[in-house]
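Appendix B, record 7
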Amino acid sequence: MLSLSLRQTIVLVFLFALVSATLITLDSRERLDWLRSPAGHVLNPVVWAFNEAGDAVASLGAGNQGVQTQEVEDLRQERDRLLAENAELRVLREEVEQLRDQLDFQNEHPDLEPLPANVIGEDPKGVERIIIIDQGREDGVRIGMAVVSPEFFVGQVTGVDDNRARVTLILDAAAQIGGMLQESGAEGVVYGRWQAGGLIEMRHIDADADVQEGELVVTSGRTARVPAGLIVGQVSEVDLDLQADTQTVRLTPMLDFRQLQAVTVILSEDVQEDVEVSE
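Structure tokens (predicted):
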């Protein structure tokens, strides 16, 4: 819909063009010579008025264009501001959800002592799948402790100093923990496969175990400082090794490791000496 001012402008422009064309046609046919006579000076103010009207219409159109340009710029700035606020709210919502998950984990596992931590870095070279957290020796963090988000197994602490710690993710090739198929109860060892182009797999499963795709794999409790029952991943593929008389299953992680912002360290008894965090 055209605004009232814009419609008025269009009408004025049309009238001005019509009058101008009429005057030009009459002048070409020498019908306006009498205007140049003394009598014609009586109508000079009328001609002047039309000229002024034409100039006013032109300036009005230019003014409207300037106003519309400013309105568009104001709308663009408002859009950019709203997009920035939306991005900030999305990050805040994710942080709140992760903190709520940590609280739920603490309520569901009263026998464990959880320590919330923020992710403050990762391997800058991209060679290892590790994260750095903002809790360390002074907070009770020790090597080997399990790290979860919220109750999905993330990895283990592999280095610690006073105020921060290094966590090796379960995806990393250096990671391995005891695992168990939740339905059948069959046990094996879970290995990280990221550097080899994979994600996670569980090996050394008894060949007679009834493994189903979609079945959950949880920690078995046979790895020091890693409680049983933490979800590691979901079975996506099963391979039977007849020669070794075992099965190997590939797992799909239950969380997006790229989006980790907050995690929980499960505090447990000391079983080994600390080492400094690797840079």
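Remarks on this record: Confidence is low (pLDDT under 50) at residues 37-43, 271-275. Residues 114-279 form a domain with the Thrombin, subunit H fold (CATH 2.40.10.340).
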